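Consider a typical record:
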Amino acid sequence: MGRAPGLSVRLKLTLSYAGFVMLAGALLLAVVWVFLLRYVPDGALMAPGYGSFIPNRSDLVRAFTPAAAEALAFLLVFGLVGGWILAGRMLAPLTRITDATRMAANGSLSHRIRLPGRRDELRELADSFDTMLARLESHVAEQRRFAANASHELRTPLAIAQALLDVARNDPNRDIGELVDRLQAVNTRAIDLTEALLLLSRTDQRSFTRLQVDLSLIAEEATETLLPLAEKRGLTIETSGDMTPTIGSPELLLQMTTNLVHNAIVHNLPEQGTVWVTTNVHPETVVLTVENTGEQVAPQVISTLAEPFQRGTQRIRNDHAGVGLGLAIVKSITQAHDGTLTLTPRPAGGLRVTVRLPLAQVALDRADTSAQHTLITP
């Protein structure tokens, strides 16, 4: 944005300081002048017994005016020099902030201001800017990592499909039915991955309509949908809880809950495992908890499970392992609904996933103060 050049802030502050000092000095001299005039006569008077004259107001003007002018000149110089020095000291933090802003604009997000000293307005600004830079750097790094992982994951099915086609071209007598089945499986995986990436993009942009929903009903629907898969694997699903009203997208919240229950079924014991799905309501939040039996999960693995394409190498892998975006989608949907996601290992083995979302009225209050979303309630 082009702007016409103007006076620097330091010069403006210097002139302001000098002007204030001059005004204060002029007022002080005016007070002194008025005070002296009260005790100096207008005309010349003879001092009794001394044979000399008492100074009158004319004498006072001749003596006071040059001294006042010299004092004002000194105050002007003092105000300009002192104001320039003080303005420089006061604006030094802003200079560092400006330099950091220019570096960030040029693509360097690793620089930090780290302004020393006790907390004040400028240091709060610098600390806030450092926090913003840290989040931007983390977000950019995450986006680059995500793009690299997504490219790798998409390249794998495409490479497999290309290899199958090359084999079919070089071996015309190969069983076409087997080739079609394998190509269909590879294509299905690529479609699932693409849809998951689109869902992540949608939730990150928060481009969805918000309705008032009952999270307990959504949990029941997700459980009923995945019950055949649980029965096939010899697992038991137990659901319980109260009505948990919140505000959000029913489709996205159903996808979030389905991912959690599916994850709990897939990464469970080979047989006789259990999945617990519970919902609770608190004064300002509603809570969805999904627990499952299973193998012990290392704490260092827990911290990476919600990252894209992190499946957890120590967890059970099979044909239902997915594309590695299940918990990443859950995390994205939770954050898009102003909630929190917590993953903790169960002492007996398995995983406990807790999703906290704002209670319906709390979510409505937040939506009323935000201009980023359109709220629709039935």
Notes: Residues 121-170 form the longest helix (50 residues). DSSP finds nine helices and nine strands in the chain. The chain has three domains: 9-101, 139-205, 211-368. Residues 110 and 262 are 39 Å apart (CA to CA).
